[in-house]
Design brief:
180 residues, mainly beta, 7-stranded antiparallel sheet, 3-stranded antiparallel sheet, 14 strands, 38% strand, globular
Length: 180
């Protein structure tokens, strides 16, 4: 893949049976500012069937997107394992569920930032899907929100490269906007 680095959408959903699911997706970005909308792109299984996240969205069209901080990298990676639908990745990865304020799927208590979303559209594209969700609530830890801004050093977000590769966001630089 040459689209690098890619941020993570660590997505919590709820199955028809009430099992909280949590899965990472590295095809993720902002789709709109007004209304605030996020998108992530879950692929299908090789046989073409839908993964748990997509089936869960059919049952409960709400989800929570979490930012993945460096200290949660191992837990995030664990949630990528192919657990059966009856197993919650929250428990498998040793994470704490906390209630969301507007949607039914829970949040990861350890996450420093999360977006509660309601599904607005799901589009089949090739062997995958584009999932769009309008943000209804944003949770940001006081530890990373300083003077009205997110402190990137405190958030310590990670991104995806290729294969087993990940990236930290510690080597940053600024370029001023040009004046036309």
């Amino acid at each position: 893949c040459l689209v690098l680095p890619r941020p993570f959408a660590w997505v919590a959903t709820l199955s028809a049976d009430g099992v909280a699911s949590l899965a990472p997706f590295s095809y993720f970005t902002i789709a709109s500012v007004a209304p605030p909308t996020l998108l992530f792109c879950p692929a299908n299984h090789p046989d073409g069937s839908a993964k748990d996240t997509l089936r869960n969205l059919d049952a409960c069209p709400e989800f929570v997107v979490h930012c993945v901080s460096e200290e949660l990298a191992a837990a995030m990676n664990q949630t990528a394992a192919p657990y059966p639908p009856a197993i919650s990745e929250f428990a498998a990865a040793g994470l704490t569920m906390t209630p969301s304020s507007l949607v039914r799927p829970p949040r990861v208590a350890e996450a420093k930032a999360a977006f509660e979303c309601r599904l607005t559209e799901r589009i089949a594209v090739g062997d995958g899907n584009v999932v769009l969700g309008e943000v209804g609530a944003i949770h940001v830890s006081e530890a990373v929100y300083v003077d009205g801004y997110v402190d990137l050093d405190a958030l310590a977000p990670i991104g995806r490269l290729v294969g087993d590769g990940y990236v930290r966001t510690t080597d940053r630089f600024a370029i001023g906007r040009p004046q036309g």
